[in-house]
Structures are given as C-alpha cells and as structure tokens.
Here is the input.
Amino acid sequence: MSLARVNWREVFARFGLVMALVALIVILSLLSDRFLTTSNVVNVLRQISINAIIACGMTVVIIGRGIDLSVGSLLALTGVVGAGLAVGGLPAGLAVLVAMALGTALGTFNGLFVAYAGIAPFIVTLAGLTIFRGAALAYTDGRPITGLPSFFMTLGYGSFLGLPVPIWIMLAFLLVTHVILRFTALGRAIYAIGGNEEAARLSGIPVRRVQAFTFAYSGMAAALAAMVLTGRLNSAQPSAGVMFELDAIAAVVVGGTSLFGGRGGVFGTLVGALIIGVINNGMNLLNVPSFYQQIVKGGVILAALLIERLVATRRT
Amino acid sequence: MSLLQMTGVDKSFGHVAALSGVDFTLEAGEVHALVGENGAGKSTLMKILAGVQPPDAGSMTLAGQPVRFASVNEAQARGVVMVYQELALVPSLSIAENLFMGRLPRLVGYRELHERARALLVEVELDLDPAGEVARLGIGERQLLEIARALSREGRILVLDEPTAALSASESERLFAIIAKVKSSGVGMVYISHRLEEVFRIADRVTVLRDGRLVGTRAVADTTADEIVQLMVGKSVRRYQRAPRTTGASLGAFEAAGPNLAPLSITLEAGEVVGLAGVIGSGRERILPTLFGLEGTASWAGEPVRSPREAIRQGIVLVPSDRKQQGLVMELTVQENVSLATLSRLQRFGFIDARREREQTRTWIERLSLRPPEPRKPVRELSGGNQQKVVVAKSLATEPKVLLLDEPTRGVDVGARAELYDVIDGLSRRGLGLLLSSSDTEELIGLSDRILVFRGGRVATELRPPFDYEEVVAHVTGARQLA
Here is the structure.
C-alpha cells in the first residue's frame, strides 16, 4: 500500500468514531464557551463513569454474542445490600467486597441459565431484571438506605492526583477489561464463541464455562458501578439504575461492538459512552429541555449504527 | 414429441466448464435417472431446467415449444418443479399452510384450505391432519409433503434430487410407490441418485454425466449396473497416488454407535490412512462427528469420547467438512484461528504468550505454505484452499495422534488440493493415524491404505490395495450387489 493514496474507507472504519467525537467537541465548544473548560471536561468524565463501568461488562457479554438486561436492577440490589451491611456495622471496605461478590454471583446465576439451560440471554436477563429489582425493594422495604460511613463519600467525591475517584475507577476497570479481552486465553475464547460458537466448540474451547463467565463479569461490573453510585448519592436507592441497561447497550453499540458478537472492544465502548455523555452535557449547557434531549440521544444512536452499517456493507 | 428436450447445453463458472454440449430428453410418464460422480454436472443441469441459473448456450423445449426460464417462478408456472434435498418447508406452520405457501388467499378460510389439503395428501398416501404442524413430521413425511406440494402446482416435470438420502428403507418404499403412481398420471420425473439399485428399480432410462459431458443414455432394460459404473468412471487419470504404508504398530481402536450408525469398531495403525466411503445417508457422513464426541457414543482405546474437548485431550482432532460453519471464526485473523485449539497450551497464568503464539503460527504457515504468509490477515480474505490450510494448521497444532479428515478438499482448488495431499502423506510418515471420510473416489484411492465402504449405517465391505476404481464405485453405489 502506498503512502500517498490514503484509503479513506479504511480510515473511517477505524477512526470514524473518534472523528465523530472530535467533531462533536468542536461544534459544542463553538456553541458554548463553558464547554471546553477543565472543570466541565472532568464533569463529563465523572458523569459517564458509572455508565462506562457497566458498559465494560456489557461489552464482554455482547462480544460473546449475549446481552445483559439485568444490570440496572442488579446495580440497585448490590447497592442496597452493600450499603445495608455497612450501615449494619460491617467494615465499609468489606461491605463493598461482599456487594461485588454478590454481583458476580448474580451474574453467574444469569450465565448458568444461558450457558447450561440454553435459554436465550434476552429472556434470562429480562427475568433477572425483575427478580433483582423486586429483591432490592423487598430488602429495603422500598426505602433508601442512608447514614453511610465516610468510605462511600470517598468513592463518590474523593480525588487522587487531581482527578475524581470515580474516573480512576472507570479507567482502571477499562484497562482490566481490555487486558482480559486482548491478552488472555479467556478473552480470545470470548471472541471465538461470539464469532462462531460451533467452531469454538470443535476447537475444544469450554464454550459454556466461558459464556457463564461473561455474565458473571457483567454482574461484577454492575456491582462496582453500584458502589460508585452509592458514593455519589451518599445513599443507596432500591429504585436506582432504572434503564441503565439501555444506556450501557447504547454505549457498546455506538462504540462499534457488533450485536452479532465476535467483534469490538472496550475502547470503542469508552468512546461510545463519551459521545453519549458529551451530547447530554452539551444539551444541558445549551439549555435544551430534557424531553428533547431524549429524542436527540435516540437519534444519535440510530445515526451511529446507520453509519457503521454503511461502512460495513461497503467493506465486503 | 418429448415432454422436455434440452439440446447442446453449455455452462461455465469462471474458467471451469460445468456442462458442455449436454442433450437431455424426458417423456411424459417417464422416470429418467441422472447419475454421475460428484461434480459431474447433474445439479447444474437441473438448476438450468428449473430456472435457477441461465445456460450459457443451448436450447430447451417443453412439449415442442421453445422456452427460456429467467426465474424459478417462470419455470414453476410452466410446470417444472424441483423437490430439493434440503427441504423448503416452514416447520412452525401447518401442513395445509405449507402446501399452499405463496398461494394462500388473502383471507384464509381454514375449512376450505384443509379440505383441499386433504385431497392432496390422499394422492401421496399420507394420512395426516392438514392442521398439524410440519415440525412434528419425520423427514420422510416431509419429503412426501414436498412432492404433494409440487403436484399441487400442476407439475408436469418433477426433479427429485437424491430424495432417499435421508429416508429409511420403509420410507423409501413408500416414496417409490408414490413415484409409480405419479408416473402413471403422465408426469415426467428426473431422478438424481447415487444409488444404482434405486435407479434400476424405478427408472425407465438412465443418463450418465461425467466432467460436464453426456457420456451415454441407456434404457434401463438394456443395460447393466456394471456398464453404468464404467460410464460414470471412464478412463480417469489418477492424479495422486500415495505409496501405501503401514507400520504394523497399533495406535488403538475406535468404537462407535449412533442413531443412524450400527455399532462398529475401527482399529488404526501408526501411519495408516483409512478411507471411509459411502453415499450420503449410508452412515459414512456420521462417523467422524461421532468419533469426535459430537453425537452418538464413541470411545478411543477404551476411553469414552464425550466431547470435542475430551477428544482433543486424547490426541484426536477433527478437520470438519464445513470450514465456514465449523472450522473457522471468520472475524479473527489467521494467527488467532491457528491458536484456537491450543489456547490452553499457549497460555501462562491465563495470559497468551505472544512470542510462542507468533512462533507457532509462523511454523505452520511455513509448513503448509500458506499464501499469503501473513499471520495478521483476516481469514475471510483468504482463498478456499488457504482457509482449509488454516483449519488443518489449527488441528495439527494440537499435536494429535489421530487426525479425522471430513471431506478435506471440498471446495478446494486443484493446486491447494495437491499440497494438502502432500501434507496428509507427510503426517502418515510421522506415524499419525488418519481417518479420511470423502465422497471423492479418486481421493480415497489415492490416499488410503484400506477403504471401508458404508451402506445402510454399517460397514458393508472392506477394500484393500491395489484398489480398482470401478470396483470402489460399484461398492459405493450398490451396483456390486445388483450383479
């Protein structure tokens, strides 16, 4: 390939997302002088951190050709259990670990039904969505849990090297997920199963175990997000996280991970979450009424997928 | 005047001539069998008849009138209906709905629909409730249902493409009875089959194709199975012959059984290539999936093989027949595909050892002379032959003792085919045991140390070298049993 002739289609396929994000940032900085300030940039990153953490787990599931609709409810349940234990006297750090273990266990519960009972992920996690929500409401009797130890405040409001803790947690989790997907045998197996389950099985890959893992990982991600959210709100709400699953899925697909499995990655998901976050933030700065914001957000998701579709069909 | 007359039909795909100058006629009330080895051009000829593909040259008349079909619908409108091997029914709909698919009235009156369906079912002697779901029918009943549907479209010409491949003996009997009945009503039928015993039972004439050319049409009453086999085989040039070789050192024995496979045992020596022959439906195509733990029950050297994972652990690996569906992950690169079956060996503490992975891939790219030799190229961009080499590389990377090859050269070009044969010979020299399941007789003869011929779900014959091409074909098609 010569250097002089740039294959624009290839460039778009690879960097189209980042280019869209940059274009969005340029437009918004022209429309509002408050947009490209340090405090607003940090603000956007902090706002997207919870969605990005959930979306990391979702990316893993979707690459393996699954879907996890239960993450919003799972976030609520693990949040109230973690907060409840901490308020009840368990050391806060331990309460957080227990909540994350619970998230992993509930994700595994989803995964076992998908992998070993062969029920469609959509159905299993839809059931999870109502079961976990119900459990969260039952556990708290529908009331928020308050009076948390200061550890949670640190999670939500602390800062380290000038950056808020939620952003550090998001970045660390992104990195871990990236390493798993790209550098481990497990990650390779997830791509293989999403791309061609039959070929993966014939290659001796333990397909069911790996599938179950993806859901367990998504459960853990949702529990981690729950801890950050609990810190941000300084309380745990049984009604938290409603519709979070849709925001996470939107970040994943806008980020270029194929819903048909086998393709994608976690950095695309970060860019996807950023695009959605920047749009939300920009519309707030421009005083767009919230009802219209939802319409715009939906439109952006459709436009992103349409563009991806066009690029993909041209490629073949 | 013939019901159908095809004259001088030519068809090529790229540079490959699939048909050249083929003539074919069909009379009303006749069953005309079309036989020939794989790739002889039978399916192409019938696709042209049914309007699936246009011919490059040649003409066609129906009852004396010149016709040219631009689509399947046009052909159907003129009464030419194809009954496919892979059935075109919607399992979740009722029998009646399937029978009238595409011709349902806008507002379906079920009472009338069911009455009309019942009349059709009587014609093919199917005693079924028209409201019943197709999903609950056996494969044989579905085949008969397809024929009923074809008849309801006022088919004057039916093309049956290996209709008994998936049928049991009693279902086949039923099919023959219905063919006789349909025939007496003046419908002409083209009957494609690999089983000569069927041809001699139900056909009036038989036409043999070889390498896209017509080699002869005979009245069944005036010919013998031996003559037909001779016509099918011709004087073929043997392209590859491996020096037969066995070491006498036993590797172990496979035991296997399955739904369409009588219990059998295959012993394997180091360096031995055992060929598995048989038409589709003979049980031959079920053996390798069974031995690899995908279906039925199997054991190797006394140890059960219940999953591909267990098989690989025992040193058995399968190169599957369908590389796109079963062999490769198209989204991944050459290197990622080559590593797929050896991930557990390439990892250290869960992390893939990048250097060892690169080395392993490079080794196999060189050994199999993969082109282009680029580990990072997506497999979907490779040619069929090179994709197949990637599947072979992935399998061999597990360092197996036994290699199961299922139609290893299907859809592979001539050059890559010869290279794969050399690879197979090399593996035998290294002392691997190989089972080669193939529908390509030349390939079986060129590579095998012995050939097991399957019929009716069991080993019917074991052949040893020197192999006689005609004899192998005669055993596979069942012609030997007719003589």
The mean pLDDT of chain B is 89. Chain B has 19 helices and 22 strands.
